[in-house]
Structures are given as C-alpha cells and as structure tokens.
Write a structure and sequence with these properties.
This protein is an alpha/beta fold. It has eleven helices and six strands. Helix 4 crosses helix 6, helix 6 runs antiparallel to helix 7 and helix 6 packs parallel to helix 11. It starts with 48 loop residues before the first helix and ends in an 8-residue tail after the last helix. The protein binds fe (ii) ion. The site of fe (ii) ion has 7 residues, from helix 5 and helix 8.
Amino acid sequence: MTNPDSDAPVSAYEKPPADGGATDPRCVPQNLDGPPPVGDEITPPVYDEESQENWRFLFQRQMSMLPGRAGEAYLEGVETLGMGPREIPHLKDLSRRMEDAAGWRIARIPGLLHERDFFGLLSDRVFPSTDYIRRKDELDYTPAPDCFHDMFGHMPMLTEPAFADFYHLFGQSALHAEGVDRQSLERLHWFTVEFGLIRQDEGERIFGAGILSSKDEVQHALSDQVEKVPFSVDAVIAQDYDVWHLQPTLFVLDSFEQLETDFRAWAGDRGLLPDGA
Ligand SMILES: [Fe+2]
C-alpha cells in the first residue's frame, strides 16, 4: 500500500464524508502496491471482543428488519455463505462458498480503493473486502468502508448467478470507461449494487447493499416516501443522487436477468465490453 496518489480519481463507489473525512485514514483512497491476498491466501485477523459484539449487534438488528423487506436471492445468499450472528466470518471461508455458488472470490483490501484497483478486481471476478469492523460509537453510521457493509451488504448477492455475471460485466466495462460513461456507470452502480430494488410476487424487495446494511435506509426504502421507478438503464443514467440523505427515488428490477441483459446491451452499444464478454 502506498500513499494516496492525488492525481488518481477518488473512488465514487464508497464515498467518504464531505466534512472532515480526509482526517480519517479509513476514508483516504489507497493504491494497492501489488495483488492483494485472495481466498485461501487471506490470514484471518484475531478480533477483540468489542469487534465481535459489534458484529453480533449489527447482524441481529439488520436481520430482524429484513423479513418482508429483503429479496429472496439476498436471504438465500446469507444462508449459502453461512453467515450468522455468532462471530465475524473469515474472508477465506466466505470466498470458498462464494466461488462455489457463482464463481466470485474475495480479496482482502485495506480500505477505500482508487477506482482503477476496484474495477481491476471486479473485472477478475474478485470482490474487494475489508476485514475490520466499525467502532461501537459508529454502529448506526460510519463514513468508512467496513466488513459489516462489505460482507453483510454485498456478499450474499454475489451468490446469485445473473447478478454475479452483471457485476463482472460492470467491472470489465468500468475499467476502460471514459467521460460521460464514467458518470453513467457510477449511477448504475449506485441504483443497483448499492440501492437496488426488485419486484417479487409479494411486492417490491431490497437487494442493494447500501440499504441492507443501513438501519435507516432499510426502514425507509419500501415506504411511501420513496418514489419507485421501473428499472431501465436510460432512466437510471439520467437520475442524479445525493449520498448524504435518505434516497427519495429508487429503481425496481423485474429480474436479475433483466439487469444482466440490459446492462450488456448498453455497455456493448457504448463500446465498453472487452472482446468475448
Ligand atoms: Fe458498498
């Protein structure tokens, strides 16, 4: 890991806070010196009791709010990965289960990454994750990446095959995108990976990691205060967003196959897909 490179773009995918964030080292984008450890190469940390307590509290609080709110694929993903309240899972165990489910593996990374490292890992079907958890005084909100958001929020969906294929295509497309395509990709990421909804027979359900790992967003997302718009790539890339407030507009997929198919068509039209993708 080197000092942040001030010429490199700051990742827009895990945003640090606007005020004072630069003083928190966890919010400073990092460059990777070389390939981070992946899967079985990852040495699990020894967590102290406060870290384990924080995981237990967050896991139980979020899970108690998810019945009737979280999507079926997400809840099945939690089971597939064997996550529970008892202790913070080890990344190498999650990586093995994720690889069996849909071919993704996990890399341990030190914190916020610059975009080129983030996209480079996604384009190899590797999900970058931290392995440290927020402090006790940050249980309701933390500006920094942490393993509760990375593991509990993101990983279950990477066991869903069509979503997993979409995210791989996303990484491949983002790696070389320029100009207006970069903003389009940022919005697509925000309104799917982080804040996506999907229609099920019983009604709208949540699959976005930014909602599922947040106490406030999970209670807000399906309420009448949110305008819910049928997903289309064109509608999403025309929609601006504000990371500092509860989201007033969200997009609803019909299926994860729709996401993968529509994204592939759009990225192909924009010339963003690598040969053979
Ligand atoms: Fe995230």
